[in-house]
Design a protein that fits this description.
The chain is mainly alpha-helical. The protein has helices spanning about 1-5, 20-25, 35-40, 70, 80-100, 105-110, 120-129; strands spanning about 50-55, 115-120.
Amino acid sequence: MLEEQFKAVDAIPQVMPFSEVYSALQQRVIDGQENTNSNIYTKKFYEVQKYMSVTNHGYLGYLVVMSKKFWKSSPLKDMNRCGFRKRLIGKQEGQTRLKTKERSFGPKEALDYGGSILDTTDFTRRLLA
């Protein structure tokens, strides 16, 4: 889906293993990358990429899936399913708070390395949506 999203704005996406992105940026095999701020920060892409565009063009969510058979079997059959749901919802809310915090990682480090942060306009955000 991301590949099609970038093709729609005339980009030429290159799909590659995540472990190769840093060296591809460093060697200028690719011009840029699309990742969460937390990935940009932890993989130090800001060291080898001069510009960072803040587009807010996507959402990264996680889905918990289990079969009906598992849901009705042990260990859950003896557990209060309502309590399990409440804990699961609490985990989801915690993940949402964590993802919100992660959005603040990365930009400062990019600036510290002499990079520039380009905040996109509302028009560009609508174009990328």
